[in-house]
Specification:
five-stranded antiparallel sheet; elongated; Alpha-Beta Plaits
């Protein structure tokens, strides 16, 4: 005997309600895992809810990036100039206390000669690291104005030591959000019990803050306290059996 097809109803607030036979197949709703079909037991109504959670955390450090380039008629000259500029940038960053300093390998590209403009070779690389928030203004004034430097996004970052605790809190908050939504719908359809069948954890994100190098000081100075605080986000997909 075949399994009856589910009946779907559109509901608000990220809730999906499906009426299933006692044995339900979730192959149509889950990513394929080695060709296996997942089956769950639900003698009632299947409720699917997405729970969201967001947690603000104190800023511990700033993630900084910058691009560095040099131009010359020949590739070897451009690379030599790039190396000299990198030495100045590295010295300034070390003086500011930048940690976890990373430098990519250089790359070059040539702009063909045009009318009135000779061919030019550009050599470039990327530099990144971590900086204490109170060193933001010196970074902009001392490093952002060096020849060939283009400041990239600055990201507020929380203390990595608190990542595990923050994730646990996000999981709790997201699950409670999904459970609350499912409870609201279960009450409407006269179901009193919710049994969690499956939980899928989805991703989170961070918000970078774009900045530019400034040739002249612009009062008031750049204040790290004005940067958005680090935010951790988490999304849960929970399937409940409502009875």
């Amino acid at each position: 005997m075949g399994i009856p097809c589910p009946t779907a109803m559109r509901l608000p607030d990220r809730i999906l309600l499906l009426l299933f036979a006692p044995w339900l197949s979730l192959a149509a709703f889950l990513p394929a895992a080695a060709g296996a079909e997942v089956q769950l037991r639900c003698e009632g109504t299947l409720l699917e809810a997405r729970g969201n959670a967001e947690l603000e955390r104190p800023t511990r450090r700033l993630g900084v990036t910058l691009g560095l380039e040099a131009q010359a008629a020949q590739a070897d000259t451009a690379l030599a100039q790039l190396q000299q500029r990198l030495a100045s940038v590295r010295s300034s960053l070390v003086g500011l206390g930048v940690e976890d300093l990373r430098v990519t390998s250089p790359s070059t590209w040539q702009r063909p000669a045009e009318r009135g403009r000779p061919a030019v070779v550009t050599a470039s690389l990327q530099v990144s690291g971590h900086l204490q928030p109170d060193r933001l203004q010196p970074l902009i004034r001392q490093v952002g104005t060096l020849p060939g430097v283009a400041l990239g996004p600055v990201t507020s970052q929380a203390d990595p030591a608190g990542d595990l605790d923050a994730r646990r809190r996000l999981l709790q908050m997201a699950y409670r959000d999904a459970h609350r939504q499912a409870q609201d719908v279960a009450a409407v359809i006269s179901r009193v019990r919710l049994n969690p069948l499956e939980v899928q954890v989805e991703g989170g994100d961070l918000r970078p803050v774009a900045m530019r190098a400034m040739a002249d000081a612009a009062p008031p100075p750049f204040d790290p306290a004005e940067l958005p605080v680090p935010k951790d986000r988490l999304l849960l997909l929970v399937r409940f059996c409502a009875r």
